[in-house]
Write a structure and sequence with these properties.
Oligomer: single chain
Strand content: 15-25%
Largest sheet: 7 strands, mixed
Number of strands: 23
Length: 620
């Protein structure tokens, strides 16, 4: 017979059970309170990840405009395929490769790169996908968890001008670059040359973010909570450049048949009006998904189209150096405006140094006009023998010849204006002599400069003795009320005297009216002052130079033109400069000068006899 349970024991058991239940409920309530209230910020994101995905929104890259507000570079939408590696099923590689029309191995390599970047962050797998391929992937997203898409952009070039050495190009950021930045992600394109590189941080803008609801396959189900948690991307700043689009296009056309470079600038401000380096390259073919075949071609081209000759080349400036020699000589008191030298047609110092100017008497103004080598050999002889070499070097560099001028482009290269230290390093201490220095007086030998340096230098004559900082960007515009100015420098060269400048200016004006510049640059309605030059080239035909500014009484443009392997500057570089000056100031080319335009567009290098015949034809 079963023993009956004591009622008191039963009541005690019930009380214990009730207590256990109450304690359990209290613990559960406390835990729920902790999770929902106390630790909400910790666990809410983890919970959201099970049903939400944060997608980064790319900002629109800033535009590039010319000085008149014309759009030169903007953005064109393209489609990208993205991947979140943690959600992707690797067994789907054959399917995705088939949809993308690529090899499995290439896709696997891309996926592994994305995994190395982040398993949980979405990144680009392929950019600039053709719309047909993009549509096929979209239709099969239900089979491809972790695969998505986003709308990106690539650079779009509006105008006829190329501007390849001005704009530069974008390329995908390297592993080191995206790991070092919280604004750059795997697959992002960043500036690698030109303005795109120098102003990358301004052009790029700031990323935005968007939370979207996703299903078990990672497919988007729409915005979360009406976008309350989203942040909008901040568009990059627009670059307002100093480039005159019409003049730049015209300059590129003139230089299209030549190898060389030119820089045209406002001598009062340093604003670059036009800059050309030829040969150029098609920057549009490097936008978006890079044309690798084309990339290999331009990298292996012996004419080096990627090399910016306008700011990086080093060439002896030839006789374009003589106006600056003149100012230094006048300042040092080596001669004055009344000094007259008699040239026998050569200069003798151990050996004979040739002179292309006729024998006769020369003062400094006439020496500039007719490019007397004798006069400047004599001056450099005194510089060398009287111990002025280091002072001479410093004074020449004050014009911007030799040092970096701080243009807002990468890869600017310094020139060479030798001093005693440089000569010792080149030849050895006390192993060089006057004979190694004589040629410096006529812009030959070791002295070298870029077209940019010569444009800055001639600007200092045009603007009455100021060295201006050359620049391409005037403003960075983030909005109507947020415009930032670049504030380039303008420095007085305090040793230059006004009366010395007037002597040199008259000599340069006479170059155009009486000297070797008269054939192609003596414009009927614009007073041009300039200087021709020919740079000796031991590896082929000589290089042509021309520097100028105009109008003489109120200069609006200063220019330096270098044409490689072209022979005399008077028949190669000078016609280019004359046309550009006329185009900028008058807005058009006088029909009576169209023969010069045709001559430049169909230019062929001339040997010395042919050059003389060409000058005679031009005179007729």
């Amino acid at each position: 017979m079963a023993r009956r349970r004591n009622p008191e024991q039963t009541k005690a058991s019930i009380r214990i059970l009730q207590g256990v239940i109450i304690i359990g409920l209290i613990i559960l309530f406390v835990r729920v309170f902790q999770l929902q209230i106390v630790d909400y910020e910790k666990y809410s994101p983890l919970s959201m990840q099970n049903s939400l995905r944060m997608e980064m929104i790319n900002p629109a890259r800033g535009l590039i405009l010319d000085r008149n507000g014309n759009i030169l570079v903007d953005n064109q939408p393209i489609y990208s395929i993205t991947i979140t590696p943690a959600n992707f099923n690797m067994e789907k590689i054959p399917l995705l490769a088939d949809l993308l029309m690529i090899d499995n191995s290439e896709l696997l390599e891309r996926i592994q790169t994305a995994q190395d970047y982040s398993w949980h962050r979405t990144s680009r797998l392929f950019t600039e996908v053709p719309f047909e391929v993009f549509s096929n992937v979209q239709e099969n997203l239900w089979q491809l968890p972790g695969i998505g898409h986003q709308v990106d952009s690539k650079r779009n070039y509006h105008s006829e001008l190329k501007g390849s050495h001005i704009f530069g190009y974008l390329r995908e950021a390297s592993r080191e670059e995206y790991l070092d930045s919280d604004q750059i992600r795997l697959g992002d394109k960043i500036g690698k040359s030109g303005l795109e590189l120098v102003y990358e941080e301004h052009l790029r803008g700031e990323l935005g973010s968007e939370y979207v609801r996703v299903n078990a396959y990672g497919q988007s189900l729409g915005s979360f909570n009406n976008g309350e948690l989203d942040s909008q991307p901040q568009k990059g700043g627009d670059l307002i450049t100093s480039i005159d689009a019409e003049l730049q296009s015209f300059s590129e056309r003139l230089m299209g048949n030549m190898t060389g470079a030119l820089v045209a600038m406002d001598p009062q401000t340093g604003e670059i009006l036009s800059m050309v380096s030829t040969p150029q390259y098609e920057v549009s073919r490097l936008a978006g998904r890079m044309d690798m075949d084309y990339w290999r071609v331009i990298n292996s081209d012996p004419k080096t189209p990627l090399f910016n000759r306008a700011i990086s080349s080093r060439q002896p400036p030839g006789s374009t150096f003589k106006p600056f020699m003149s100012l230094v000589g006048l300042h040092l008191g080596i001669f004055n405006e009344n000094t007259v030298l008699t040239s026998p047609g050569y200069y003798s110092r151990g050996r004979r140094y040739g002179d292309t100017a006729d024998p006769g008497d020369y003062d400094i103004e006439k020496a500039i006009t007719f490019s007397s080598n004798y006069f400047f050999y004599w001056m450099m002889d005194i510089v060398a023998t009287e111990g002025y070499l280091n002072t001479w070097s410093d004074l020449i560099q004050d014009f911007g010849i030799g040092p970096l001028n701080g243009i807002d482009l990468p890869s600017e290269r310094s020139g060479i204006v030798p001093d005693s230290t440089y000569m010792d390093q080149t030849f050895g201490a006390r192993r060089w002599s006057i004979g190694d220095l004589i040629n410096l007086g006529i812009g030959q030998g070791l002295v070298s400069a870029s077209p940019l340096q010569m444009a800055v230098a001639v600007s200092s004559i045009a603007n009455d003795g100021y060295r201006v900082q050359p620049h391409l960007v005037k403003q960075i515009k983030y909005g109507e009320n947020d415009i930032r100015y670049t504030n380039p420098e303008k420095t007085r060269i305090d040793w230059i005297e006004e009366d010395h400048l007037e002597i040199v200016k008259r000599g340069m004006r006479s170059v155009v009216t009486e000297g070797s510049g008269r054939f192609y640059t003596n414009l009927p309605d614009i007073e041009v002052a300039g200087k021709t030059g020919t740079s000796q080239n031991p590896h082929g035909e000589d290089h042509g130079w021309f520097i100028a500014f105009a109008p003489m009484d109120d200069p609006k443009i200063a220019i330096a033109v270098l044409t490689e392997n072209s022979g005399f500057g008077s028949i190669s570089a000078a016609p280019v400069a004359g046309l550009i000056i006329e185009k900028y100031i008058n807005g058009e080319i006088n029909p009576r000068r169209n023969w010069i335009l045709d001559y430049v567009l169909n230019f062929e290098p001339r040997i010395e006899q042919e050059a003389e015949e060409a000058e005679e034809d031009a005179q007729l």
